[in-house]
Amino acid sequence: xxxxxxxxxxIRDAMQAIAQRKPGKTKLVYDKTxxxxxxxxxxxxxxxxxxxxxxxxxxxxxxxxxxxxxRQNWPQLLAEGNVRCQFSxxxxxxxxxxxxxxxxxxxxxxxxxxxxAGGGASxxxxxxxxxxxxxxxxxxxxxxxxxxxxxxxxxxGSNSEQSVSTIFADVQxxxxxxxxxxxxxxxxxxxxxxxxxxxxxxxxxxxxLAKCGVGRFALVDRDRLSVGNVVRHPGGIxxxxxxxxxxxxxxxxxxxxxxxxxxxxxDLNFASKEELKKLIAESSIVVCGTDNRPSKLxxxxxxxxxxxxxxxxxxxxxAFGGQVLRVRPKVSPCHQCFVAAMPDEASDVEISSSSxxxxxxxxxxxxxxxxxxxxxxLPIANMVAKLxxxxxxxxxxxxxxxxxxxxxxxxxxxxxxxxxATPYSDWPPLSESSDEMTINRWYGIYFDRDSExxxxxxxxxxxxxxxxxxxxxxSVPQSAAGATSMPVPTED
Length: 492
Ligand SMILES: [Zn+2]
Fold this sequence. Notes:
seven-stranded mixed barrel, elongated, binds zinc ion
């Protein structure tokens, strides 16, 4: 916007006069009847109405203060007259955001002081000062703050050049309000999700669940974010080199600073089995987005033993489609049953060599950048998050109960395109089909549990029946969850 505009200049002069607490040539006054701000210029009889637009309101920098932090530091402010803190300075100082609000500060940090009116102490060494003055009548503007003793204060900020609009962020109530439209606010705060595999799909699912208000996360992955991942992973170029579990933890905290997130840089194998068991036992649900069969089967076995439901998501090669399997232990088919019933479908996401790995987008191993690859993974990540959400809401009052009818099948299939040389290559175009299968639709597919499944089936009973044994005469070692402990299946 041009500062040559006389109206802009009047506003600027008046705001600067206010910031410097000295009388200027122009005063800004709110005219209640006209519901607008008017400028009263020195020597002028009639106030001049200013059409203040949203753009004008954005003319000055905005400082956002954490009211939670200020309440915590209120005793120090009372005792010393001011408290020091730091603000992320974004966009050449246009937005100043208190660092305590979230985990990711800006590269440029401004030193600030919050000063109580009449506090006295010298604060010449700061870039940003925010003055708090007591007010009698609470209008509850964004610049108003309620102290722990119930007193109301109004904040006004300034730096060396201009006044800085100051607003308070009450993060938790605000986020809960936003969520209430789509979900029952904080009912998922006590739920815990274990995410194993934080490639593109797993990371997106984690963030969606954070937006739903899930309160606790455990993140397992062994990889670091690479430059090649960035085109599809939620982590950005500034985060390259960090372990994915830590990148995703910070992204979750950016959505919900009150979430409890633990990170575990782990390879999934026998050595990590005990740690994995412990994490599964503490979880409401497990989301598995790993890219190979042995790790999925290990997670499957441990989840069945612990009686914890799990969602397995994966994209087919080059993300031409994907599938999601939901396992309710001893109720629906497990991943081992899936492999036995549909070895081809179950193997489509698998890696048997490093050259295979290079073709599989979901693995986040280096692949050629293709337009839309991330777009093709997102429907699958979205379904994983939705199925997880439905499971988490099972024991909660929810308006989403009706979804249980639609999410009844154990296995879900999605195609992004009729990939040549696949069973789906001759699917009809989207526009022509009303009753045939097409791309861009979810299909819920039923299949049965394998009664002889070594993980979830009546394996021992069947052996006993085949050999004419009476199991009552045998004692079987039981795991903590009461399920029969079986050896971990190895790669076939
Ligand atoms: Zn099974």
